Amino acid sequence: MARTAVLGSGSWGTAFASIVADAGGEVRLWARRPELAERINATHANPDYHPGLRLPDSVTATADVAEATDGADMVIIAVPSQSLRENLLAWGPVFPDDVPVVSLMKGVELDTNKRMSQVIAEAGDIDPARIVVVSGPNLAGEIVERQPAAVVVASSSPRARARVAEACATPYFRPYLGADVVGTEIAGATKNVIALAVGMAHGMGMGDNTTASLITRGLAETARLGTALGADPQTFLGLAGVGDLVATCASPLSRNRTFGYALGQGKSLAETIAATKQVAEGVKSCRSILALAQQAGVDVPIVENVEAVLYEGRSTRDVVGSLMSRARKLETS
Ligand SMILES: NC(=O)c1ccc[n+]([C@@H]2O[C@H](COP(=O)([O-])OP(=O)(O)OC[C@H]3O[C@@H](n4cnc5c(N)ncnc54)[C@H](O)[C@@H]3O)[C@@H](O)[C@H]2O)c1
Ligand SMILES: O=P(O)(O)OC[C@H](O)CO
């Protein structure tokens, strides 16, 4: 039986471990806290993240990353984006040679403005041909209920992406193959920022016209940025693009949308951060995505306004005026 290491036992790491086990794999799940690893092994559950989920027997947990990765034929990473580099450096060279290294993360590193695959290549000293990015409309709370969903498995290596797709294909989880790592990652990270904007609008009492306008224009600026960075424009019309954007912006399960909603309701940033127990990647990545756009000379007005609310003291009400009063332009420009 194939042995997979999943590093990160939060909401998505736990859900993905369950998918790989359902696909026939044996999974070692790495938990940062030893007491969580012990609890998962004793109860076959991780109720802090997924109350009601019984993990398959072929999922076991450990707090020792070397034990998790020993003999693994695939290493899957699901830690918060901003902690990836420090984790890779702390783990050291424990990944088995030549196996695919998979990123489930949807963020861009602060300060370096690097995508997660770039951080893995650099800090983990991993050949980019071994790196695979998995992204799509995959709210973990629905996946653990085994509700049908599709996903993109992207890598420059046809062999690596085929191996990863095989390892996570189940009757309820359908992988599609992709070659566009840049587009898949930019789409996954930027949709979190657009979902923050949609949440703010909902929090202010706005309805579906506003949501649809933000989703559509959010997709336009995501595609503009991604294309400028070398992505295939078609990626933004696929599962990692419009698919994930719609799922995240529409769902009350989204942490990013929920975070934006609280701000739209008038909660302060500090209050909202204190009330958020899981990672809402867009809160930090809005800064690095904006920096990437500025470096590339690309206009990203929704990202820019979200960043201004979070870090420049702009009010959510002012965002409406700021976005609605922009100079008129061709929709397709
Ligand atoms: N939850 C989803 O529906 C979903 C779906 C697709 C992709 N993702 C992406 O997966 C990634 C992980 O998200 P998640 O939903 O599992 O988040 P989460 O907040 O549920 O879990 C994060 C896990 O990382 C641990 N952690 C926190 N700080 C850490 C650190 N400094 N070092 C190592 N571990 C740390 C936490 O204890 C927790 O186990 C994110 O990039 C997210 O965008 C999430
Ligand atoms: O809960 P969010 O906002 O981090 O979104 C989760 C997933 O990325 C949806 O595909």
UniProtKB/TrEMBL annotation:
<feature type="binding site">
    <location>
        <begin position="8"/>
        <end position="13"/>
    </location>
    <ligand>
        <name>NAD(+)</name>
    </ligand>
</feature>
<dbReference type="GO" id="GO:0047952">
    <property type="term" value="F:glycerol-3-phosphate dehydrogenase [NAD(P)+] activity"/>
</dbReference>
<keyword id="KW-0594">Phospholipid biosynthesis</keyword>
<feature type="binding site">
    <location>
        <position position="32"/>
    </location>
    <ligand>
        <name>NADPH</name>
    </ligand>
</feature>
<feature type="binding site">
    <location>
        <position position="106"/>
    </location>
    <ligand>
        <name>sn-glycerol 3-phosphate</name>
    </ligand>
</feature>
<dbReference type="InterPro" id="IPR006168">
    <property type="entry name" value="G3P_DH_NAD-dep"/>
</dbReference>
<feature type="binding site">
    <location>
        <position position="244"/>
    </location>
    <ligand>
        <name>sn-glycerol 3-phosphate</name>
    </ligand>
</feature>
<feature type="binding site">
    <location>
        <position position="136"/>
    </location>
    <ligand>
        <name>sn-glycerol 3-phosphate</name>
    </ligand>
</feature>
<feature type="binding site">
    <location>
        <position position="191"/>
    </location>
    <ligand>
        <name>sn-glycerol 3-phosphate</name>
    </ligand>
</feature>
<dbReference type="GO" id="GO:0046167">
    <property type="term" value="P:glycerol-3-phosphate biosynthetic process"/>
</dbReference>
<feature type="binding site">
    <location>
        <position position="106"/>
    </location>
    <ligand>
        <name>substrate</name>
    </ligand>
</feature>
<protein>
    <recommendedName>
        <fullName>Glycerol-3-phosphate dehydrogenase [NAD(P)+]</fullName>
        <ecNumber>1.1.1.94</ecNumber>
    </recommendedName>
</protein>
<feature type="binding site">
    <location>
        <begin position="255"/>
        <end position="256"/>
    </location>
    <ligand>
        <name>substrate</name>
    </ligand>
</feature>
<dbReference type="InterPro" id="IPR008927">
    <property type="entry name" value="6-PGluconate_DH-like_C_sf"/>
</dbReference>
<feature type="binding site">
    <location>
        <position position="255"/>
    </location>
    <ligand>
        <name>NAD(+)</name>
    </ligand>
</feature>
<keyword id="KW-0443">Lipid metabolism</keyword>
<feature type="binding site">
    <location>
        <position position="255"/>
    </location>
    <ligand>
        <name>NADPH</name>
    </ligand>
</feature>
<feature type="binding site">
    <location>
        <position position="279"/>
    </location>
    <ligand>
        <name>NADPH</name>
    </ligand>
</feature>
<dbReference type="GO" id="GO:0005829">
    <property type="term" value="C:cytosol"/>
</dbReference>
<feature type="binding site">
    <location>
        <position position="33"/>
    </location>
    <ligand>
        <name>NADPH</name>
    </ligand>
</feature>
<comment type="similarity">
    <text>Belongs to the NAD-dependent glycerol-3-phosphate dehydrogenase family.</text>
</comment>
<feature type="binding site">
    <location>
        <position position="140"/>
    </location>
    <ligand>
        <name>NADPH</name>
    </ligand>
</feature>
<keyword id="KW-0547">Nucleotide-binding</keyword>
<dbReference type="InterPro" id="IPR011128">
    <property type="entry name" value="G3P_DH_NAD-dep_N"/>
</dbReference>
<keyword id="KW-0560">Oxidoreductase</keyword>
<dbReference type="InterPro" id="IPR006109">
    <property type="entry name" value="G3P_DH_NAD-dep_C"/>
</dbReference>
<keyword id="KW-0444">Lipid biosynthesis</keyword>
<dbReference type="GO" id="GO:0006650">
    <property type="term" value="P:glycerophospholipid metabolic process"/>
</dbReference>
<feature type="domain" description="Glycerol-3-phosphate dehydrogenase NAD-dependent N-terminal">
    <location>
        <begin position="5"/>
        <end position="158"/>
    </location>
</feature>
<feature type="domain" description="Glycerol-3-phosphate dehydrogenase NAD-dependent C-terminal">
    <location>
        <begin position="180"/>
        <end position="320"/>
    </location>
</feature>
<feature type="binding site">
    <location>
        <position position="11"/>
    </location>
    <ligand>
        <name>NADPH</name>
    </ligand>
</feature>
<feature type="binding site">
    <location>
        <position position="49"/>
    </location>
    <ligand>
        <name>NADPH</name>
    </ligand>
</feature>
<feature type="binding site">
    <location>
        <position position="140"/>
    </location>
    <ligand>
        <name>NAD(+)</name>
    </ligand>
</feature>
<feature type="active site" description="Proton acceptor">
    <location>
        <position position="191"/>
    </location>
</feature>
<feature type="binding site">
    <location>
        <position position="12"/>
    </location>
    <ligand>
        <name>NADPH</name>
    </ligand>
</feature>
<feature type="binding site">
    <location>
        <position position="281"/>
    </location>
    <ligand>
        <name>NADPH</name>
    </ligand>
</feature>
<keyword id="KW-1208">Phospholipid metabolism</keyword>
<feature type="binding site">
    <location>
        <position position="254"/>
    </location>
    <ligand>
        <name>sn-glycerol 3-phosphate</name>
    </ligand>
</feature>
<comment type="pathway">
    <text>Membrane lipid metabolism; glycerophospholipid metabolism.</text>
</comment>
<dbReference type="InterPro" id="IPR013328">
    <property type="entry name" value="6PGD_dom2"/>
</dbReference>
<keyword id="KW-0963">Cytoplasm</keyword>
<keyword id="KW-0520">NAD</keyword>
